[in-house]
Amino acid sequence: MHYKDIYALFDQLKRELIDSYKDIIARHRREILQDDYEPLIHEIFEFAAANESASLLVVGKSGDALSGDLIDTIGAYCNELIDPLSATQVDPVGPAVDGRTAGAVRDYHFVYLAAGIVGSLKEWYRRGRREPIDLVVRIAANNTHAIGLAMLARNIGASACESADAQTNPARR
Hints:
Blueprint: H1 6-27, H2 29-33, H3 38-50, H4 52-59, H5 64-82, H6 84-87, H7 99-126, H8 133-146, H9 149-168
Protein name: Transcriptional regulator TetR C-terminal Firmicutes type domain-containing protein
């Protein structure tokens, strides 16, 4: 009754859900910068369990569009809030990488991490939430840590090396 149509209601629910996840990320900024993802992922899973009806919009069979929006938003918000390029220690002696390339590497990195976390959440729901939250969170946190900020720095360094190689060896372009 308060919305023009079902799509307006869905858009409002989507905005509220995304804002909730942004708030969760903001609360865990310091831990993310320390490559500690367990508190963040734990709160995401606790939020999903406490807000089952909203979470089912993301993890249900028709939730692919919403989960895609959520992944994109989480990835972009991590880039904005955390600024991992300045937080990442890239070897200053190695070849320089331009900001655009480093930004692209960062964008892919955080979307990949967000997709893994959302995918873990979807799998937990798909399996009927049989496993304890702590078990699933530990698995997701360990996987996320393995591809955390150190991997981001490695990928930025690798892109710098590829860029330098392409400049010195035009045949490889």
